[in-house]
Amino acid sequence: MRTLLRNLLSAPLTEALPPAERVAVTALAARVQAGALARLGRSLSIREVDAGSCNGCELEIHALNNPFYDVERFGLRFVASPRHADVLLVTGPVTHNMREALERTYTATPAPKWVVAVGDCAAGCGVFEGSYACVGAVSNVLPVDLLIRGCPPTPVDLLRGLLHLLDGGQRTS
Ligand code: SF4
What we know:
The strands form two sheets. This protein has a five-stranded parallel β-sheet, with helices on both faces. Helix 3 links the parallel strand 1 and strand 2. The chain contains six helices and seven strands. Helix 2 runs parallel beside helix 6. It is 40% helix and 16% strand.
């Protein structure tokens, strides 16, 4: 009973975002929400595909959804199926092992859709350039609508990229 009371009355353990970061993320995420509403008439749905990354880019993408950044409160949703997605966020150089899965995910995503290559590896192989295991950049396999560079790009970079898409990026039909 004492433990229950203590847990109910104590503050959350999650650290607060640094004030400058909180302001930037809140403003950008609100603009993405407004952009999605204006462009799609609803929330933006995102399917993330790791095509062979080191997982550094995934950590930053996942951070968008953690209690620290919590962009879901602005209607940005990561979906489990490409059939429900507006955007494919693709990370990593595309490996031979993941090429078919990436192509099938793209085919399963309803048109019109956007493909975003996230990170230096997705943009041009990055540190994996020349590897026998890689097909190459995401653009070698799929039509890419936007590159978000960085190793890895930060959550703020990711939000800026999504905003750019909604502000005028054409979708692949
Ligand atoms: S861009 Fe950097 S963090 Fe992202 S997959 Fe490549 S090496 Fe990893």
